[in-house]
Every structure is written in structure tokens, then in C-alpha cells.
Amino acid sequence: MDALFERQDALLRATSMTIIRSFMEQVNWSAPMLCIRGPRGVGKSTLLRQYVKSHFAEGSEDVLYCSMDWVYFSQHSMLEVAEKFYKHGGKLLIFDEVHKYENWSREVKEVAETYPQLQLMLSGSSLLKLLDGDVDLSRRCRGYDMPGLSFREYLQFYKGIELPAYSLEEVLGSAKKIAAEVNKVCRPLQHFHEYLKFGYYPFYLTNPLDYYALIEQTVNYVVDVELPQQRKVSPVNCRKIKALLNVLSQLVPYDVDISKLSSSIGLQRNTVIEYLNHLKDAKLLHLLFSDLVSVKKMQKPDKIYLENPNLLYALATTPVKTGTVRECFVVNQLSLAHTVEYGKTQGDFRVDGKWTFEVGGESKSFDQIADIPNSFILADDIESPRSNKLPLWMIGFLY
């Protein structure tokens, strides 16, 4: 145990408190058991250590932070650590990167049942394992999905510009006021297109030269390791899944042609749909449907987007289409707290069943949504709203 506390102390000393993401305020940290989920690199481990650092005295043994990829856990179990920690008066036990420990859900459930007074916090980058975990455990554990940086957070992290977040209702109802406030402190367009290329993951700050390589490593880990282990995907098909991602990164997202996708990568139609759903669960894709109420299990999606624009730039082998980047950004930012559907002939997107959005450039017209109530254009390359034509970058202020 002493070795674990020493490791914790060293990590906490190296953890900066300069910038703390607003996601910290969205978590009920008093829950008996909680789990922070999210793609690799969005800052889950840092958030947990920042919580410890801000709520416990230096050197406190009331809390123990452990990462499950430490060599220590090759010879010691989670249950063994929990038992020793509890007997010595421990109160909060954190298992970071929990998905890297075999049979983690069974042992966590046993810890929770054996030591109900012990508060547990978990985190994991492997959404596949966390989704496929024990059903009974999922009822006990409060889950939170941590996204990458919004455009607002990018301005805070990368440029030192502090601005508040707004709800979608506030953005749509007070767009002029919000745009004026933002334009007082910065030129948003100056930074927005940088954000689309490398602003989603905080680790660009520490490793800009290898940024896209690190993103690609994360994708390779999901496809080569997690899909075969957790979704029984044949390793032979992993290369074809990567080809699928590459094709999707280069397509303009019009209506999906599954037959064309199938033939281009050499897989059967139903297999492609199955793999698309796996990639959605792993937070590598967004799948959009025109009517979520009537969606069937093996129904093809109406539109497919990579999870965030930075993935587009990391995976594409040809110049990325501007329209694809814009729509990918909108879906990424809105999907965290809203239901997004494909608009078909009535705009690009239908949000929460009441708002319609068309996405485009500065000259985008209202022709396609002229007679639709509560409809808006999200236009790139403008700083201020013009009636119901709003700057695209404002959707990046929702969290």
C-alpha cells in the first residue's frame, strides 16, 4: 500500500490546477459509485486527480488513486487493495483506466457489496468494455460521458480567453448579445478553424507534433484490440474497418449508400451495419437517422459522421471537405445534450424534435427551410448573427 500512496503523491504533485474543465461541476461527486467514461485523451485521469487535489490535504490517506495499467496490479487484485485501504480507514478509492483490468466489473461489484461505506470512482477510455460491463453494476453506478473540448473550452485552454457556456435556447434566443460579448474579447473566426483541426483533445498542448499520430493510435487500439476482444470481430476484418473509416473521412455526408460502402471495402451489407454500430459505441462515429422512434436494430443510418472534426483531419488521406467538417462539428457539439436527427428534405438536422438547422457557408440561403418554423442557418465565416442566420462557431459554446 505504501507504494501506491507514494505513486499517488507523485502524480498529484505533477497535476496542474491552472485550468479545470467545467465538466467538473456536472458530476455528482458525492455519489456512492460513479464512472467517468469517454474517449482516450479527453482528460478523465486529470479530472479525477484534480478532484483529489482540491478536496483532500496533501499526503492524505483517506483517498487512494490507482491506475489499473500499473504493474502493481499484475500481482495484486482490486479486491485486495480495497480490503487493505478500507481497514486502514480509507474513504474514497479511485480505479482509473478500469477497463484494462480483467473481470473488473465483477470485482468492483464485490468491493461495493463488501465495503458499502467505501466511495468508489471509476474511469475508462474503452467505451466498449464499459458498455458491455455487468448489468447489475450499471444500475448501481452513476455514469458520466466526458467529451473533448468545446470551442469555448479551446479558447480557454489554448488562448487564455475565459467565456461562459450557454444553453442552446440561449444561443438561439440571444445570439446577437452573445456574439457581441464574444467579439469584445476575441475574433472568433481567427481561432475557430484552428479548433476544427486540432482543438478537440487537450493533449495537443503537450505534444503538438504527434497530435494526429496519437489520435490514429487511439483508433488503431479500438479497432485492433477492443473490437476483437469485446465484439468478437474477426481480426481479419480489422484492416477493412480501418478502410471503412478512411472512406467515411473522405465522403461528403449525403444519404448513405450501404451497398456502395460494402463493395468498396469487401464486406457484406449487414456486416457493415453491425460494424458501424460498434464504431458508434466506441465513440468513433455518429450515426444519424431521420426518425429515431422507428429505428430498427439492423437499419442503415441515413447519415454517418466521424465523432469529431479532428478525427477527420487525422484519418483522411485526401483534403477534407469543408462541408463535411462543418456538419461533423455541429453533430458533435449538439449530440452531447440533445437528440439530433437527419432532416432529410427539411434542413440538415432536426434537433429535439423542434428546431431545424441548415449548415453552410456565409452565402447559404433560406430556400430549403423558408417555410419551416423554428429554423436556423448555421453559417461559417460570419462573426455576428443576421436574423436567423447564426455564426457556426456559436454552437461551440454549449458546454
Which structural traits does this protein have?
five-stranded mixed beta sheet; globular; five-stranded parallel beta sheet; alpha/beta; 399 residues; Rossmann fold
Written description of the protein model:
This protein has 16 helices and twelve strands. It is an alpha/beta fold. The protein folds into two domains: 2-145, P-loop containing nucleotide triphosphate hydrolases (Rossmann fold), CATH 3.40.50.300; 153-397, no CATH class. Strands 2-3-4-1-5 form a five-stranded parallel sheet, sandwiched between helices. A five-stranded mixed sheet has the order 8-9-10-11-12, covered by helices on one side.
Give a quick precis of the structure.
The chain has 399 residues and is of the alpha/beta class.
Envelope shape: globular
Low-confidence stretches: none
Beta fraction: 5-15%
- Biggest sheet: strands side by side, in what order? 2-3-4-1-5
Question: What is the averaged pLDDT score?
Answer: 93
Structural class: alpha/beta
Percent helix range:
40-55%
How would the blueprint of this fold be written?
Layout: H1 2-13, E1 33-37, H2 44-55, E2 63-67, H3 78-87, E3 92-96, H4 104-114, E4 119-124, H5 127-131, H6 135-140, E5 142-145, H7 151-159, H8 168-173, H9 175-185, H10 188-198, H11 211-231, H12 238-250, H13 258-265, H14 269-281, E6 285-288, E7 303-306, H15 309-315, H16 322-335, E8 340-342, E9 349-351, E10 355-360, E11 375-379, E12 389-391
Helix pairs in contact: 3-4, 10-15, 11-12, 11-15, 12-15, 13-14
